[in-house]
Specification:
The protein is mostly helical. 72% of the residues lie in helices and 1% in strands. A hairpin with a 2-residue loop joins strand 1 and strand 2.
C-alpha cells in the first residue's frame, strides 16, 4: 500500500470517528446490534447438539461479547461528547435518571407482568412456578440478582447490564487518567474473579455452589475486559493506529483459542476442574472486539436507504426485544418444558418456526420501545396493559388451538388484537385517550374472564362470564360512537 492510499484511509477513519463523536446514533452500531439480537433469539431456540456442529462459537455465540464491547464504546463516546471528566459529573442524577428510565423501569414492568403471567400458567401457585420454571438453578439468592421467578432465557444478562450502570462511569474516569493501566486492570479483574471461583468453589457439586457461581456470572465484573475494549476504542478506533496494534495480536490469539475450543473441545482445566467458567471471558472478547472495529471501518456511518431505517430501529430497540424474547421463551418453557425448538435430527420446518418467532419478538420489542417513548404517561400505561395482555394471549391461542379447545374470552381477545392492528396499520388514525381507556377496560375484563374460565368455572358454567363481557362491550361501543358523533 502506498503512502497516498494509507493517508486516504486514515482520513476516512478520522472523519468516521468525528461522526461518531458528534452523533448520538450511527448506523454501524445499530446494524451490529440488530444482527446480534437475531443471533440471541437463534441461540435460545437452537439446542446445543446443533450449535456444536455448526461452529457457533465463531459466529453465533459472538452476540453477547459484541453487545458488551458496544456498551463500552457507546458509553465512552457519550461521556466524551458531553465533556464529562470528574466522578461527580459522571455519577450525576441526570445520568442515573436516564439509565433508570431506559433500563430499570422496563425491567420492573417485565418483572411484574411476567410474574403475573407465570402465576396464571401455573394455576396461581407461586411455589410450583418458582420450583419448575428454572429448575434446578433457581435459588433464593437469584431473587436478589434479578433472576425473575418466571424465568426466561437471557434473564442473566439483565443484572450484568444493571451492574454496568454503576461500574462504567468509574471505568471511563480511569481511561481519562491512565488508559493503558485501566485497560490492563479490566483483564486483571476478570482473571482474579475466575481464580476466586476456581479456588473457592471448584467443582460444582451442590445447588448452593451453582447459585453462588451464578452471582459471579451475573456480575459485569466477570465480563469487564469486553467493556474495557469498547471504551478503549471510543478514544480512537482506527485499525491502523499504533494504539490499536495490540488488538491484532489479541485477535489472532482469540481466534486460535476459539477454533480449538469449538472444533477440538479444548478447555483449560486443572485436575478436571475448569479454570474458566462460562463461554464469555477475556480469551473470547478480543475476537468480537475486532469484528466491531471492522464494522466501524467498513460499514457506512450514515445510511439513507429505506431498509437502513428499519435496521436502525431494530438496533435501537434491542433491549426491549431482549425483554420481549425473555417473556416469550419463558411462556414456551412453561408450555413445553424447554425454550429450545430445534434439535437433532434437523427438521427444516423448524426454520420456519424460528423465522416466525424472530419476527414476532422483534416486532413486539419495537412496539414496546415505541410505547416507552410515549410522552403521555396515561397513554403509556394503557398501552402497557394492552401489550402485556395481547402478547401472551397470542401465544396462548397458538397453544390452545393444538388442543382443539380455545376459551371463548381468548377468541374475543384475539379479535380485539386484529381490530387494533387494522386500526393502526390500515386506518392509521390515533384513538382518543378516553376511548382507549374504555377499550383497555374491555380487554382486562376479557382476560380476567379467560382466567376464570380456565381455572375456576366448570365447562357448563362458562356462559356466566359472557354476561359482564357483553354488557361492557355494549357500553364500550356506545361510548365510542357517542364520542365520535
Amino acid at each position: 500500500m502506498n503512502d497516498q492510499n494509507f493517508q486516504s484511509i486514515e482520513q476516512e477513519e478520522t472523519s468516521a470517528l468525528e461522526g461518531l463523536e458528534e452523533r448520538t446514533s450511527f448506523f454501524q452500531i445499530d446494524f451490529l446490534k440488530a444482527v446480534m439480537i437475531f443471533l440471541v433469539i437463534f441461540d435460545h431456540y437452537v439446542y446445543w447438539d446443533i450449535k456444536r456442529q455448526i461452529g457457533a462459537a465463531l459466529w453465533e455465540r459472538i452476540s453477547i461479547p459484541v453487545f458488551l464491547v458496544v456498551l463500552g464504546l457507546n458509553m465512552g463516546l457519550s461521556f466524551k461528547r458531553q465533556g464529562l471528566t470528574t466522578l461527580k459529573q459522571l455519577y450525576s442524577w441526570s445520568y442515573f435518571k436516564k439509565k433508570i428510565l431506559r433500563y430499570v423501569v422496563p425491567f420492573l414492568i417485565l418483572y411484574a407482568a411476567s410474574t403475573f403471567i407465570g402465576l396464571f400458567m401455573y394455576g396461581f401457585d407461586f411455589i410450583a412456578m418458582y420450583d419448575t420454571q428454572y429448575y434446578p438453578e433457581h435459588g433464593i439468592i437469584n431473587l436478589f440478582t434479578l433472576i425473575m421467578p418466571f424465568w426466561g432465557p437471557g434473564n442473566w444478562f439483565i443484572p450484568v447490564l444493571m451492574g454496568s450502570i454503576l461500574v462504567v462511569p468509574l471505568l471511563y474516569w480511569g481511561f481519562t487518567k491512565k488508559p493503558v493501566i485501566t485497560l490492563i486492570l479490566t483483564f486483571v479483574v476478570e482473571i482474579v474473579l475466575h481464580a476466586i471461583v476456581f479456588f473457592v468453589i471448584g467443582d460444582i457439586t451442590t445447588l448452593d455452589e451453582s447459585h453462588i457461581l451464578s452471582v459471579f456470572m451475573t456480575s459485569i465484573l466477570f465480563y469487564l475486559s469486553a467493556v474495557g475494549l469498547g471504551m478503549w476504542f471510543s478514544f480512537g478506533h482506527k485499525l491502523t493506529e499504533k494504539r490499536n496494534i495490540f488488538i491484532w495480536i489479541l485477535f489472532i490469539i482469540s481466534l486460535v483459542y476459539l477454533i480449538a475450543y469449538q472444533f477440538f473441545d479444548f478447555r483449560f482445566t486443572l485436575d478436571g476442574t475448569p479454570l474458566l467458567r462460562g463461554d464469555y471471558y477475556f480469551l473470547v472478547f478480543p475476537y468480537s472486539a475486532f469484528l466491531v472495529l471492522l464494522a466501524l471501518r467498513f460499514l457506512p456511518n450514515i445510511s439513507k436507504k429505506k431498509i437502513s431505517k428499519t435496521i436502525s430501529l431494530i438496533g435501537k430497540s434491542t433491549y426491549h426485544i431482549l425483554l420481549t424474547q425473555i417473556l416469550g421463551f419463558g411462556i414456551n418453557t412453561a408450555f413445553w418444558g424447554t425454550h429450545y425448538g430445534m434439535f437433532v435430527p434437523f427438521d427444516p420446518y423448524d426454520l420456519i418456526d424460528l423465522a416466525l418467532l424472530s419476527f414476532v419478538f422483534v416486532w413486539l420489542g419495537i412496539i414496546w420501545y415505541k410505547i416507552d417513548r410515549q410522552k403521555d404517561l396515561a397513554r403509556r400505561i394503557l398501552y402497557y396493559f394492552n401489550f402485556f395482555i395481547l402478547f401472551p394471549c397470542f401465544l396462548f391461542f397458538i397453544f390452545w388451538m393444538q388442543t382443539s379447545w380455545v376459551p371463548i374470552p381468548l377468541i374475543v381477545i384475539i379479535l380485539y388484537a386484529i381490530a387494533a392492528i387494522i386500526l393502526h396499520f390500515v386506518i392509521k388514525k390515533p384513538i382518543n385517550t378516553r376511548i382507549l381507556a374504555v377499550w383497555t377496560g374491555f380487554l382486562i375484563i376479557s382476560f380476567i374472564s379467560m382466567i376464570l374460565q380456565v381455572l375456576v368455572f366448570l365447562p357448563s358454567e362458562f356462559w356466566i362470564l359472557l354476561i359482564p363481557m357483553g354488557a361492557y362491550l355494549v357500553f364500550a361501543l356506545y361510548y365510542t360512537l357517542s364520542n365520535k358523533t
